[in-house]
Design brief:
With 231 residues, this protein is an alpha/beta fold. The protein has helices at residues 15-29, 42-51, 91-96, 109-125, 176-183, 221-230; strands at 6-11, 33-39, 56-59, 62-63, 66-67, 80-85, 101-104, 133-138, 141-146, 150-156, 159-164, 169-172, 187-191, 194-197, 201-205, 208-211, 216-218. A hairpin with a 2-residue loop joins strand 10 (150-156) and strand 11.
């Protein structure tokens, strides 16, 4: 059993499609997923994935005359994609997009169970795989950032700034909240605007801490309680 439950996204423009997938997930692998989020349109799905990381996405292809394939560039690199569609002719394109699976509507419950069973076996075989890197988008490219190279993250309006060792920095449209699950247990939310890698802490006191690079960061009252749970 995984120590951390996962998140799933269902994108389908038909209510019946979203409902049936949610029912099948709850029936076959309710213990895997902490949260199942649904979206009925491409634009809505794009906004959702900006705010939260998903381990798996069940994606319809025909979304009110828009293509589900257009969501792919917005998903994290480690998000598994299962296409769920009435159209068999897109299978080759799905393979090229490294789809985890391709299910035809109406969904065969036995085939769906085979899909989620295979997914469960894969994540159990390497349950920490999603926690080794933080994937961000930069000018259309995916950049995998090793978690052990991140010093701290800072919220800046609708964006987040990621500070790494060797004075490197990245800016991402992801929020701190959406990255929390991917960052894992070595990262502590010390303030509404800061997350620190605990291995990068030099010293701390009630309302501030110093990183190993001598950067001073604020610590809120809640953040101080979080620190006390780790040290």
């Amino acid at each position: 059993m995984l120590s951390t439950k996962l998140t799933a996204l269902i994108v389908d423009d038909e209510h019946s499609g979203r409902s049936s997938l949610k029912i099948l997930l709850n029936k076959n692998c309710y213990y895997l997923f902490e949260k199942i989020v649904t979206a009925s349109a491409l634009d809505q799905a794009i906004e959702i994935v900006k705010q939260q990381h998903f381990n798996i996405c069940f994606l319809d292809i025909n979304l009110n005359n828009q293509s589900g394939f257009d969501l792919i560039p917005h998903l994290a690199n480690d998000t598994k994609v299962v296409f769920v569609t009435a159209y068999s002719e897109f299978a080759i394109k799905a393979i090229k997009e490294n789809a985890f699976d391709y299910l035809l509507k109406p969904i065969n419950p036995a085939e769906f169970k085979l899909c989620v069973d295979r997914y469960e076996k894969e994540i159990l075989a390497d349950s920490d795989a999603v926690k080794k890197y933080l994937h961000i988008k930069d000018q259309g490219e995916t950049i995998p950032i090793p978690l052990d190279e991140i010093v701290f993250l800072q919220a800046e309006g609708a964006y987040s700034k990621i500070y790494l060792i060797k004075n490197r920095e990245y800016i991402t449209a992801k929020t701190l909240k959406s990255m929390t699950d991917v960052l894992g247990k070595d990262f502590i939310r010390i303030h509404k605007s800061y997350i620190i890698n605990k291995t990068m802490i030099k010293s701390f006191k009630k309302n501030s801490l110093t990183t190993i690079h001598n950067t001073c960061l604020p610590v809120s009252r809640v953040g101080a309680k979080e620190l006390s749970l780790h040290f």
